[in-house]
Structure formats: C-alpha cells, structure tokens
Specification:
There is one protein chain. It is built from 8 helices and 3 strands, in the order ααααβααββαα. By secondary structure, the protein is mainly α. The protein folds into 2 domains: about 45 residues, no CATH class; about 130 residues, Orthogonal Bundle (Arc Repressor Mutant, subunit A), CATH 1.10.10.10. It has a 3-stranded antiparallel beta sheet with strand order 1-3-2. The protein starts with 5 loop residues before the first helix and ends with a helix. About 15% of the residues are buried.
C-alpha cells in the first residue's frame, strides 16, 4: 500500500472527519466521504483529477447560489457577455465563440430571447442570418450578473493570495490545454 503524503493525509482527515495530530480542528469539516477512513482516501487525494473535480463541484455550487438566478446558466451568461462585446454577432459566430454546435446555440439564443434578454434582427443583405443584440432588460440583467460574478470570484478565491490566484489560473490553463 502506498503511503500518503502529509498534505494528502491532512486533506483526507478533513473530509473523513478523522482529525489527526497534524490537523487540529479538522474534524469539524465533514464533506465528501465521512464513512471512509483516511487510508482509504489517500490515493484519491493525491489525484490531480480528483482534486480538480472537488474544486469544480464546490465552485459550481457557489456559482449557482451566488450568480445564476432563475433560468440563467453559465452558457447563457457567456453568450450575453459575447453579444454585449460584439453587438450584431450572428448565431454561427456565437456558436464558434462558445465552442458549441449550431443546434446547441439555437437553444441558448431561443432561451435568451424568451427571457427578453436579446433580440434577433434580420441581417441586411442576408435574409437567412440573424444578428443578435441585447435588449434594455438584457443590459440590466448582464450588469447584475457581472456584479454577482465579481462577488463570486472574491468568495472562491478568499483563501488565496493574489499571487496564488494568478498561479492557480496559470496552472489550470496548462492542464486544460489540449
């Protein structure tokens, strides 16, 4: 059996509720798998993929609690941001910028239009293409979303220094690169 690193043992103790002498107060955090003992978690805690997934689950929970209200989703918010910075963008270009298929962007655009956040307008000279613009309601909603997103960013990085935050972003970008 592989011996867990000291940092893995600390993380394992925090999750399992089994505090060790090296982790005072760790038993007050009881999240992922309280029925597992630290030795059972040691290999997971040394897994980059597992740690990234745990962070993703936590940050997504916070994202939906703090930013996404009603029918808003990350894809819809991203689309609103793109339409705001590139008024008149067409659906094909929006799909490319979002990295999604044509049918998927239609669903996003349909939802944003149904919510009264964007308008689709005929593109001059091309009756098949629609240009996308924020409505007044869309501008107001995007302003609120951005304010909430700023609070969210502050909350998820509150335990990090500015340098640690920049380093984490750079490292995650490296991991995310194909």
């Amino acid at each position: 059996m592989q011996k867990a690193s000291p940092s893995a043992r600390k993380r394992s103790a925090r999750v399992s509720g089994h505090a060790s002498k090296t982790t005072p107060g760790a038993s007050d955090v009881d999240t992922a798998a309280p029925h597992l003992v630290p030795e059972d978690l040691s290999q997971m805690w040394d897994s980059l993929g597992y740690c990234i997934k745990r962070a993703q689950v936590r940050t997504y929970t916070m994202l939906f609690d703090m930013v996404m209200a009603g029918e808003m989703t990350p894809a819809r918010m991203t689309a609103l941001n793109i339409i705001d910075t590139d008024p008149g963008i067409n659906q094909s270009a929006l799909a490319a910028r979002l990295g999604i298929t044509g049918p998927s962007v239609v669903k996003v655009v349909d939802a944003l239009e149904r919510l009264g956040l964007i308008d689709r307008r005929l593109t001059e000279g091309d009756r098949r293409t629609r240009s996308l613009f924020l409505t007044d309601h869309g501008v107001k909603e995007l302003k609120t979303l951005r304010e909430n997103a700023a609070r969210y960013e502050k909350a998820i990085s509150k335990k990090l220094s500015a340098d640690e935050r920049r380093t984490l972003i750079a490292l995650l970008d490296k991991v995310a690169e194909p």
